[in-house]
């Protein structure tokens, strides 16, 4: 009986496969051992007794042993510290260079040095600036301020920040503004430099002072004595100090010499009547380059600063709820009396039962309002006693004011006000408000 084509094909294929020899045997590749595994400890861990026990105590004991031994199967590489190289020779060379760079003249017999140190002055010998930078600085000062680039203005500002007589009394913003008005003047030998109209810094040459006293840079000094010897041969005294009996103790001699980086003059505009009788002058011993900061430039800075502060105070008062409908002229009268003051967090501004001493306008931060009440406190012995507690009532936020009613009507505060975080506010003291 003939076979169908499909079974005949399957049979022929099976016969062909049966005649094919099996593939040759191959070895299983070796597994690479990890460098981070301790296989001895791993083998011991796998053969801990009690792992397959039916007793619970044996299983717990085997588990605890397993957990203690498990960390030991990992190998930890030992950290090696870097080797220390001998640098004694290099250090000796560096020390020699530093000593040569910082060698300073012998000042053991110079009384000006000891007076300077006694008044907590800066060091007389500042690090040497590179000659190239200094020459660039001189070249910039020869230009008119309007012709200088932003980079040149910044260079002048950097040099001004190295003068202690300026940095001790003016902040960086004022110095930055002044740096755009300063210029350099060349004075020939024997010239008399009258310093009634500005503040001067000697850049090159020597000069001898002819006057005893120089004005303070800034007016409004509260101290009776404002003696500020900030740099070599530089003396700046307050107006009140000039008339005191202590003046002769601190005044420089007539023949005191002013050298490089010495300062003289004033930043306050002196009336013509006083400038004729009080001439602040020096005589140049040789050709000098002198930097001048005009007093009018500083006066302009103060005027702009006053305008900005007054506008800020006016805006602050105007935004407080009780002053929204006040006339602008009336608010201007208050701005003249305002003073800025900061309070730290947790500061008690006024306690309940007291009359506050100022009116406050909060510019930043906030204050918490508490009411003092008497309550009952239960003790451990089941007894009850009276105790005073502060209960939170509300919050004073930015652009809010307080204290007007307490001062004007002389009524004690019914609440306690405590700052929650640092608070900056403008205040008007009660004595100023009564005068108004």
TrEMBL record:
Residue ranges annotated for the Cyclic nucleotide-binding domain, each copy included: 322-436
CDD domains, per the entry: CAP_ED
SUPFAM superfamilies, per the entry: cAMP-binding domain-like
Superkingdom of origin: Eukaryota
Gene3D superfamilies reported in the protein's UniProt record: Jelly Rolls (2.60.120.10)
A Pfam family of this chain: cNMP_binding
Protein name in UniProt: Cyclic nucleotide binding domain containing 1
Native source organism of the sequence: Saimiri boliviensis boliviensis
């Amino acid at each position: 009986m003939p076979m169908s084509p499909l079974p005949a094909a399957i049979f022929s294929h099976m016969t062909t496969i049966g005649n094919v020899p099996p593939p040759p045997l191959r070895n299983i590749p070796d597994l690479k051992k990890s460098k981070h595994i301790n296989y001895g400890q791993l083998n011991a861990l796998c053969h801990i007794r009690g792992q397959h026990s039916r007793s619970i105590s044996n299983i717990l004991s085997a588990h605890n042993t397993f957990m203690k031994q498990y960390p030991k199967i990992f190998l930890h590489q030992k950290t090696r510290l870097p080797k220390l190289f001998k640098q004694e020779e290099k250090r000796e060379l560096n020390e020699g260079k530093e000593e040569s760079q910082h060698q300073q003249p012998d000042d053991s017999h110079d009384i000006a040095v000891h007076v300077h140190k006694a008044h907590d002055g800066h060091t007389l010998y500042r690090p040497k600036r590179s000659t190239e930078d200094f020459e660039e600085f001189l070249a910039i000062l020869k230009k008119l301020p309007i012709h200088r680039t932003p980079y040149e203005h910044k260079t002048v500002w950097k040099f001004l920040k190295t003068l202690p007589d300026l940095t001790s009394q003016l902040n960086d913003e004022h110095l930055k503004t002044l740096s755009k008005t300063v210029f350099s003047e060349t004075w020939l030998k024997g010239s008399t430099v009258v310093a009634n109209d500005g503040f001067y810094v000697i850049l090159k040459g020597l000069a001898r002072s002819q006057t005893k006293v120089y004005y303070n840079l800034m007016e409004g000094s509260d101290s009776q004595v404002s003696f500020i010897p900030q740099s070599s041969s530089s003396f700046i005294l307050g107006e009140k100090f000039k008339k005191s009996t202590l003046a002769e103790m601190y005044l420089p001699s007539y023949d005191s010499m002013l050298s490089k980086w010495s300062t003289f003059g004033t930043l306050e505009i002196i009336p013509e009547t006083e400038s004729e009788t009080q001439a602040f002058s020096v005589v140049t011993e040789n050709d000098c380059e002198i930097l001048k900061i005009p007093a009018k430039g500083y006066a302009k800075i103060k005027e702009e600063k006053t305008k900005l502060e007054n506008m800020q105070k006016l805006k602050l008062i105007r935004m407080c709820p009780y002053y929204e409908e006040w006339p602008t002229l009336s608010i201007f009268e208050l701005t003249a009396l305002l003073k800025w003051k900061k309070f730290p967090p947790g500061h008690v501004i006024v306690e309940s039962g007291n009359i506050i001493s100022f009116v406050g306008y909060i510019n930043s931060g906030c204050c918490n309002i508490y009411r003092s009440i008497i309550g009952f406190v239960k003790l451990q012995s089941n007894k009850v006693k009276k105790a005073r507690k502060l209960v939170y009532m509300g919050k004073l936020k930015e652009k809010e004011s307080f204290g007007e009613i307490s001062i004007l009507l002389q009524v004690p505060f019914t609440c306690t006000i405590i700052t929650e975080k640092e608070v900056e506010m403008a205040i008007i003291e009660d004595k100023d408000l009564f005068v108004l």
